[in-house]
Amino acid sequence: MSLTYNFSGKVALVTGSSSGIGAATAILFAKSGANVVVTGRNATKVSEVAKQCLNVSQKGLKTLEVVADVTRNEDLVRLVDTTVQTFGKIDILVNNAGIAIPVGIGDKNYVNIYRQNLQTNLDSVVFLTHICHIVIWSVGLAWITFSCAINGAGYCHQNIY
Ligand SMILES: NC(=O)c1ccc[n+]([C@@H]2O[C@H](COP(=O)([O-])OP(=O)(O)OC[C@H]3O[C@@H](n4cnc5c(N)ncnc54)[C@H](OP(=O)(O)O)[C@@H]3O)[C@@H](O)[C@H]2O)c1
Predict the structure, then answer these.
(1) Is residue 63 within 8 Å of 31, Cβ to Cβ?
(2) What is Dmax (Cα atoms) for the chain?
(3) Domains of the chain
(4) Does residue 18's CB lie within 6 angstroms of at least one atom of ligand 1?
(5) β-strand 64-67 against 92-95: which pairing, if any?
(6) pTM over 0.70
(7) Residue 38 vs residue 146, higher pLDDT
(8) What pLDDT is recorded for position 134?
(9) What pLDDT sits at residue 151?
(10) Average of pLDDT values for 78-104?
């Protein structure tokens, strides 16, 4: 079965698109005609996925590569600024970047890991969606968030959020 989408003229920013579900999403957007922003902390992986996006883009659209850490607000501001400077807008924001660090309630690093999880999986989503709306408030923005399933914080060796 093959599904066909048409995102010609649209700009799609997918966080955590240097691997996994985010990479697959970015490649599918590129295949469907969108201008795509590939981003993550790992520059090599970001470039590899950007090349794959270019390869599947029927119009040969060049992908924007932005190396950024979603837990750093200044990186997120730069991500949005660079996207708007390059493409003039953002139509689709996919909040996909996320981590899942299994940890037990008795672990000495439990609280630090809890904070790291929340900064990556929740705070970044709120801040990035907020600044996208500020920058492009006059243009319609569709946003999608892939979140981790909420696991019980009290369980042993499970992801906290
Ligand atoms: N796979 C599952 O079964 C599953 C289940 C439930 C929820 N989810 C959620 O779905 C999303 C994608 O899952 P996945 O399996 O594709 O994960 P993955 O393969 O581990 O990919 C995670 C992506 O997030 C990026 N990332 C992580 N921390 C980051 C940070 N601080 N700053 C910027 N980018 C960061 C990584 O890029 P860099 O390493 O380059 O930074 C990577 O591209 C995640 O939010 C995950 O929690 C997945």
Answers:
(1) no
(2) 54
(3) 11-159 (3.40.50.720)
(4) yes
(5) unpaired
(6) yes
(7) 38
(8) 78
(9) 41
(10) 93
Spatial distance between the Cα atoms of 98 and 143, rounded to a whole number of angstroms: 16
Evaluate if residue 139 carries a pLDDT over 60: no
Q: Beta strand 142-145 with 102-103: parallel, antiparallel or unpaired?
A: unpaired
One DSSP character per residue, 36-69 reads EEEEES-HHHHHHHHHHHHHH-TT-PPPEEEE--
Question: Ligand 1, atom 10: nearest CA belongs to which residue?
Answer: 146
Atom of ligand 1 nearest to the CA of 98: 45
In this structure, the chain runs to a length of 161
pLDDT reading at 38 higher than 60 = yes
CA distance 73 to 42: 17
> At what angle are helices 124-135 and 73-87 packed, to 10 degrees?
30
